[in-house]
Amino acid sequence: MSDLSTTVMDLPRRDARDKLRGRTRYTVDRVRPDMLHAVLLRSNVPAGRIVKLDISAAREAPGVRAIATGHDAPGLYGIGIADHPLLAIDTIRYHGEPIVAIAAETEAQARAALALVVLDIEPVAPVLTMGEALAKDARLVHEGWRDYEVLTEGGARDGNIAWEARTTRGDVEEAFARPDVTIVETTIRVGRQSHVPFEPRTAIGSWENGRAHIETSTQVPWTVRNVTGRVLQLPPGRVRVTVPPVGGGFGLKFDATIEPITALLARITGRTVVIENSRQEEMATCLCRENAEILIRSAVTADGEIAGREAVVLMDCGAYGGEQIFLSTMTAHTLGGNYRVGAMRLVSRAVYTNTPPNGAFRACNGVYNTFALERHTDEICQALDLDPLAFRKKNVLGDGDLGATGQVFDGDVLKPMLERMDTLRATTGTLEEKADGRLYGRATTVGTWFVFVGPSAATINMNADGSATLVTSGVEIGSGTMMQSLPQMVAGQLGLSPDQVVVREADTDSAGLDVGVGGGRTTVSIGAASIGAAAEVRDKLFGFASELLQTRPEELELVGGRVAIKGRPGSGIAVSTVVQHAQTVSGPITGTGSFTGKGVPSMSGCAFGHFIEALEIPIFVVHEAEVAVDPDTGHVEVLAYRVVQDVGRALNRRAIMGQIQGGVVQGLGYALHEAVTIAPDGRIREDGFETYRVPLAGDVVPVVADLYEGAPSSGPLGTKGAGEVPILGVAAAIGCAVANATGKPVRELPLTPPRVLGLLKGRETSPEFPHIAASFEANTLA
Amino acid sequence: MTVTFQLNGERCRFHDDPMTPLLDVLRREQFLTGAKGVCREGFCGASTVHVDGEPVMSCLKPIGLVSGCSVTTIEGLSSGDQALDPLQAAFEAADVVQCGMCFPGMVMSLSAFVRDNPHATRPQIKAAMSGNICRCTGYERIIDAVADHLERQKADVLTKEAAHV
Amino acid sequence: MDMRDGPERMFLSAATVAEAVAARRAGAAVLAGGTWTMRDPRRGVSLPESVVALSRIAELQRVEVLDGEIRIGASVTHAALAGALSGLAGFEGLAAAATGAANPAIRRVATVGGNLCAIDFAAADLVPALLALDAGIELALADGPRLLPISDFLRERSELLKTALLTRVIIRRDVAASAHVRLPLRKAGDYPVAIVSIAQSTDGAIRVAVGSVEPVARRWSALEAELAGKALTPEEAQALAEKTNDFIGRDGIEAEGWYRREVLPALVRRAFAALQKGGAA
């Protein structure tokens, strides 16, 4: 590994000062008085047929400049399956579905005009739960599902099953039939989690020189570009997306939603149009982490060998497939991760319901699959009277072990991480005395996640003053990657200081394709592309300097802003001089780099319907929680929280610690406080901060973390993503700790005081799923 | 109706609905977008400004009740190229900011708190933050920075007192 | 740019109680701190077309601590009330209610009168605390002031407040100690899902009030009857609370009725423990 002493540092964020002074202009702060304001007429029933839609009176209302309906944007979009219209056409599939968009001079005028739209919906009985959706003779949420364009081949589909991903490795039936195994079965049910980014989804669309220009609060400028082109049926290249600083995303902004509507209205009016979701709209139509139902069953020998495992995971995608179609792939790597298992088969089904569509949320389905797997693991240990920590040390994935799809894991990582947790615990001590008469519990859990590799592009333009401008489609969503790891990496490669690296915010007109900021991929994918661009720049600098210095390029290095002769700091020539020289002789020095995952093999015949068959860069975590449970009220207090996280290589330890503290606290919200429930009319009931309870300062503890470096990684400089994964193991650690404290089977989340008191008082029963068949094969379309 | 008040030290007039939230006057009329409308119900604190020196949530403050008052927004706390408020400087130095949307409100709440409670304990700091939600950071590093700031402030006072002896 | 259609909103900043009462009788909505009213649009309700603000009426902003009673003006904020009661023996419960409600920025603005007059707000903290203190509510009507017990006020408030203005809360100082135990779902910053407020008079009588469990806070008369004349440990008080638990919890998004009811005996135990320590919980 090259010398990283100029790359690794606790570089503070360059955007902090403006953010602290209230000067940063997020998209939501860019509304100008001359813009049109658009509002959406949304369905107030969960399912129905539009029998009448008359916008003529609204069109005549004061200030109204344009009205759009689904017929103005007939293209369908989606992930895997194109099933989603921009605005509902004829059929209503969820409460809150947008039907009509009105742009007017003021928001008040637009809202007044909404009231004049004549809309007559003939309601039909909604399919609100996955149980209803999978019932025999269930009404189809998408009657025409067979006619949808398939964007990615391979998934099995049928009616309300939007997508099915399945794995099978080894002979599971034989393992379960062994005479020396005990069979343990666990059922788990989890609700949705709402992201609550402080900046709601907001987009500003304009029409410039025959093209749409959308300025928006997104994590995925290229997805917005592509979806907008698709639904508006524009010729290729007619959409430009730019992204100001984003006020939080957490995965919610990993899909296009309202952006194309602004472009549509801008095309009609020739004016700039803004849509800003109200908080209520934002929460009522949040692309939540999906609710899920899980049955997991294992065959384990008396000495703790996992001979076989099978599981059924039902993921509610809501009214449209969206991310859940893609995420069905992750069950193989999360529920199928963590442990060495003899034979395994898993099925993961994305199910349509008449509820608001779900989406991606930090570590996505990994969070609840890890909760399910770790609770199941503890139930195995309980059934066989094994020590949970010893069981984990014995069975965690190690070098050469096989994953669910037959992927061969590289290196022993989880076991030494568990040992590091022992050391960390010995250092911090435990806090049982703080339980103060309440029920005390502690649990140590493991988790497997990954880096979502995929295409990224980077260009570096060298400037005459010796600075570098890095141009990518990266977005600063708050994680700091654009402020810290990227300039650190480029500066380290070019011998500059990070403040000499200007980082351009995303503009799809200036940088190449990128699959977005999420999945822990920015440092890895954009980082790798940036390092590629830096390599080209370095070669060019060396080429010119070698002439100027009469030295062979191999003898040069970039250090301290100079092209220096190796081992002689301060020698050579300033980078700025080389750049200026190059500009006069052959033009400015630029470099480009690009990246995508190389692909890691899995075993043939193991995976069906998977977008990702093997993890290119796995990430492991060990989480440990200590809790006190109030037996009178069911309140769970977190006493201590410890993390050992596999980071590959830490480029900015302080920034990673900030991500760990923040990610763990979001996980505490999911585990303990945050509930999204669906009312009988299909509405999300928790649509404000009074009822949707995120953790407050009083509810959290300082997370103590140990960064585990050195695990194998194909990421640049050995890095892995560090921002997404801290949330992965929290529900698992808390759920297991609460189960240990109470002696009750924790099988549902969140563990709100009423749920925990219900557990203690015997009011809570374990979830039962009549719609999951006893036989594994009966739960697949195979 | 016309409402007159002081805004960041200057006289400001508003002619319209007196039930307009102060937040909307700041953002839409004055283009002071530091204060944010996040929940607009008094739970998140993102719209916090000082009215007559006290932090209040501008989303729930009808402009009619601001008549004759003095309003300071985040933009007025350290304007132009003035140095940061010491608490802002502490947050910057400790690298606690992430998406940043909550920080204008967080700074307005906590700058008044540290002014009024120079000897605050960690639990008191946490209690003072119960109306300021942050979705990114998990709070603890913000609390660390406030606690460090208070320690430094105390040390400065001691140094000054020693100098006067 | 006109943001609204329709007639100009009436906004009167009353200088006197009489002026405010006259405006109220003419249909104006009363605006105190605004923290409840300003959320109307979020509830799908338009802001009132005519408003009378109380902020200029100085007498409503006073807390008078007299030998025999305490008089609290309707416009006194939670924060100001907490400050005025600080260290005042016997009023630990009310002080705790004023200190624990909502969050600091709301407490600086939300008023005593607003808390008592927000009819749909079941989780108001001050209401059970004032019930336990058997406070009197002073109303201003067109024909003069009227003083009535808080229980009567709560029962009749939707009718009374159509024409009357709540001006003061009056509390006798015959209270020896009090405690206010609130149960939010998080540590702080929530509306409590259940509240137990208790106060012991100098003659030993104990009053217990419960908030947030039913749509309107009320005294726990069945428990008070059992407690009468007994010196009990907190655990004994809890046992009596279990025996006399006649509450029907309201179902809400945050908690179902059974939970609100179920936690009450434990909150009674805590309130008694706090009472015996001579302070707030």
What does this structure look like?
The complex is a heterotrimer of chains A (782), B (165) and C (281). Chain A is 25% helix and 25% strand. By secondary structure, chain A is of the alpha+beta class. Chain A folds into 3 domains: 150 residues, Aldehyde Oxidoreductase, domain 4 (2-Layer Sandwich), CATH 3.30.365.10; 169 residues, Aldehyde Oxidoreductase, domain 3 (Alpha-Beta Complex); 320 residues, 2-Layer Sandwich (Aldehyde Oxidoreductase, domain 4), CATH 3.30.365. In chain A, strands 3-8-1-17-14-15-16 form a 7-stranded mixed β-sheet. In chain A, a hairpin with a 5-residue loop joins strand 22 and strand 23. In chain A, helix 12 runs antiparallel to helix 13. In chain A, 64% of the residues are buried. The mean pLDDT of chain A is 97. By secondary structure, chain B is an alpha+beta fold. Chain B has a 5-stranded mixed β-sheet. Chain B is globular. The mean pLDDT of chain B is 96. Chain C has 11 helices and 12 strands. In chain C, the strands form 3 sheets. A 5-stranded antiparallel β-sheet of chain C has the order 4-5-8-6-7. In chain C, 32% of the residues lie in helices and 23% in strands. The N terminus of chain C is likely disordered. With 281 residues, chain C is α+β, with helices and mostly antiparallel strands.
